[in-house]
Amino acid sequence: MSAGLMNADYDRLRQIEFHPYVYKDVLPTLELQKQHGIVTESYGGLSPIFRFKGGPLDPVLESIAKRLSAEMGKPFSEAQVLSLWQREKGVVIVTCVALEAVTCDLSSLGTWVDESV
Question: 41: burial class by Cβ within 10 Å (0-12, 13-18, 19+)?
Fold first, then answer.
């Protein structure tokens, strides 16, 4: 992870740790930044599947990924589920995952996922 990107604060951009396990704690920050027109970028958005594997979110992510895979007719990963959740919350997705497969997996989100999902 680039230390230069951590907690970047450029006029209208702020990067914070953002994933379901910290959502309740960062909600006031998100609301404040939105009020002031500050764009929120995430880091650690994939932490539930890399840093906190085995947590209570695992079965939820697995279930959603299976459902979306069936609905879309294409494989849908837990990383994609988390990324869509971040996008739905209005947060710009930033990842520093070094695994090429995950990066390619995330890059396909904009090409075939319907906005209504």
Answer: middle
Instruction: Give the tens place of pLDDT for each residue, 70-84.
Output: 998 989 899 999 999
Name every residue whose Cβ is closer than 8 Å to that of residue 102 and which is 6 or more positions away in sequence. 46, 77, 79, 95
- Mention every residue, 6+ apart, whose C-beta is less than 8 A from residue 89: 18, 23, 30
| Beta-bridge mates of residue 13 | 10, 39
Q: What is the pTM of this model?
A: 0.72
Report which residue type is found at 56. P
Residue with tokens 């294409």: 74
Closest CA to 82 of 70, 73, 55, 33: 55
Q: Which residue bears the tokens 């599947």?
A: 49
